[in-house]
Amino acid sequence: MNKILCVMFALMVSVFIFVGCGSASQVLVVMPDGAPALSMLGLMSKDYKINGESTEYRIVSSDNIAGLVANRQADVAVLPLNLASKVCGEDYQILSVMTFGNLYLVSNAGASVQDVIGHNLYVINLNNVPGLTTKIMLNELNIPYSESSQTQDNTMLIGATAQELIGGFMSGKVEYAVVAEPAVSLMLSQVEGLEVIGDVQDIMGEYPQSVLVIKKNVFDAEEIGYLIEELQNIVMFAHSNVTKIYDIIESHLQEGVVTSFKENLITRDLITRCNIGFKLAVDEKQNIDNYIDALREINENSTNLIPPEAYYDITG
Known about the structure:
Helix content is 40%, strand content 21%. It is α/β, with parallel strands linked by helices and 316 residues long. The strands form two sheets. Strands 2-1-3-11-4-12 form a six-stranded mixed sheet. It is globular, with a radius of gyration of 23 Å. The termini are far apart. The model is unreliable at 1-24 (pLDDT under 50).
């Protein structure tokens, strides 16, 4: 009897060891819907294994991504720069810029940004980075603005959602709005006569919108080098696989998340306006710092200063 029990115990231990050794640890990569998801298409399309391990790519809601990073659940994440500035340094480092500005002024009444003077200007996410960036742009153009009153000499900023703006343009209530892709393409397809009359990026110059961060002490320099090689082709991949983009995104959505991309509206123009790209963060440090300084001039609490150690340097 004792021999039988010993054999059974030995078998159980063997099975436990086998299962434990055979289960590779998983790398979790998270990103919000929109342009950040577009920037990771190439990796998602072939389920690229970071560190040679099973890798899950998960497109999450903007409300959930902060928690996944704050709780150290994510190993890799594409984050808006202002959020990355608040989590990087101790637990994560910034590897690269993945998307640059993708805000546009749309209108069915005016022809240029100067035409907003004396009118209401509606802004998606007025209290977040899009609104702050709009204020930076208006300051650079010396266009007075207010959030409480509108006069002939200024423009009043009003927050709104994409759906509210579509209805507002159709009813004539809205004449000018600052919108990001992919909402721009959606609105252009639904509002007759609506046009892009201003590119915020042309006015302000290129600025970093979202960055890729990696958990510290998880990946070695060689693996990061392989990852960088993959990421250098993100723009070419997106433009070469327009018809596959929707399916790739749909297959990586977190349960309950609905993508803002519409299958019939994914075009090369949309991809271009999303302004995805890949540049090492250490090479973009001055541009990152300049944009953070500009955001903090509008709202000091909107972002943190980024310490030097928060930048991943592959040559270090």
